[in-house]
Automatic annotation (TrEMBL):
Identification of the protein by name: ABC-type nitrate/sulfonate/bicarbonate transport system substrate-binding protein
UniProt xrefs under SUPFAM superfamilies: Periplasmic binding protein-like II
Alphabetized PANTHER family for the sequence: ALIPHATIC SULFONATES-BINDING PROTEIN-RELATED (PTHR30024)
Domain of life of the native organism: Bacteria
Domain SsuA/THI5-like: 62-280
Pfam families: NMT1 (PF09084)
Gene3D superfamilies recorded: Periplasmic binding protein-like II
Coiled coil: none
Length: 343
């Protein structure tokens, strides 16, 4: 049963997600593929159907490597009656809470955030797998300054780690690994820093280690003052690297065909990216105004079909961290492949 949770109540119940987050206005620019990126002065506009039966889904207009933007640029929404409606930039920690209350209809963030949202009563479901970790294309990388004297996990005690949000992969994958290496994670200062600011924050000494996701990890890779310690592939073999797409439950129930169109379009885009990683980097570089050589590639789960092992991985972590009562959430509560035409 869907539980109607107001945004104010949501932010109380999920304060650890909402800290240091804000919704920024959109830039109103014309996107690659012809979509008009518009923003509102306050909360995103509520839009469902426009003209001639077209269904629009509300989606963040964020500067990142993203399958919705690529699917639109590649024409994969053509021939459907479904289109993205960009509603402005949305800070990463706010994406899942806003999907859960319907202020945006669709978005991508890591599995533990979705699990926690479902456990709190929000109306949200994973409907598509997303990125995956490969040794040559990890989901996130760990950087330090070359002169920092940090070489082993134990060296991080007493230091400041910058990462993009609490409650997601950067926190839980890292803490799980560090504990296994005998590190007291309570002796580390955890600081939320957006990915696009993480390299500069590290280089200026405001953090001692930065956990950065593509495409922005490419800048840190090329920075001669920094060195990479690990990737998430080194930490868990990529098990925690699935970055799925989730939908507002009410939207999926009211617009099942649009949801199928959407999932099908990004699945086609994901397969295209896997086959054409350099071309995908070019589109992303143009879209976000980033130098091409610094844009790192993404790898995606084939056909974006969701598998259960990455979800169970995070259920186990959340239970062991005391963030989720044992048995409260099952894998089947978190996802469905019913909207994926390739499943």
């Amino acid at each position: 049963m869907t539980i109607d949770v107001g945004r104010r109540s949501l932010l109380r119940n999920m304060a650890w997600l909402a800290t240091a987050s804000l919704i920024l206005p959109g830039c109103g620019k014309k996107e690659e593929g012809g979509a008009d990126s518009s923003s509102s002065a306050g909360a995103p506009a509520v839009l469902k159907k426009v003209g001639d039966g077209v269904v629009e889904f509300k989606y963040p207009d964020n500067p990142t490597f993203d399958l919705v933007y690529l699917a639109e640029a590649l024409g994969y929404f053509d021939g459907t009656r479904t289109r993205p409606r960009y509603v402005g930039k949305v800070a990463a920690p706010q994406i899942i809470p806003l999907i859960g209350t319907g202020e945006i209809d669709f978005g991508t963030r890591m599995v533990p955030l979705v699990i926690s949202a479902i456990a709190s009563g929000l109306d949200i479901k994973v409907v598509s797998a997303g990125g995956k970790t490969l040794e040559e294309a990890p989901h996130m990388k760990y950087f330090v300054r070359k002169d920092a004297g940090i070489r082993t996990p134990k060296d991080l005690e007493g230091k400041t780690v910058g990462f993009n949000s609490f409650g997601a992969c950067a926190e839980f994958v890292t803490k799980k690994y560090l504990r296994a290496q005998g590190v007291d994670v309570n002796k580390i200062n955890w600081l939320v820093v957006p990915d696009n600011q993480a390299e500069q924050t590290l280089a200026t000494g405001n953090t001692d280690l930065a956990i950065i996701h593509p495409p922005f990890s490419g800048g840190a890779e090329s920075n001669t003052e920094l060195t990479k310690l690990w990737s998430d592939y080194d930490l868990d073999g990529g098990l925690g690297g699935m970055a799925p797409y989730s939908v507002y439950g009410k939207f999926a129930r009211e617009h099942p065909e649009a949801t199928r169109d959407l999932v099908g379009a990004i699945a086609k885009a994901a397969n295209w990216v896997n086959a054409n990683p350099d071309e995908a980097r070019k589109i992303t570089a143009q879209r976000i105004g980033m130098e091409l050589r610094l844009v790192e590639r993404f790898a995606y789960v084939e056909n974006l079909v969701v598998t259960e092992a990455p979800i169970q991985y995070y259920i186990d972590i959340l239970e062991s961290e005391g963030k989720l009562p044992p048995g409260k959430i099952r894998v089947k509560d978190v996802y469905t492949n019913e909207f994926n035409p390739f499943a």
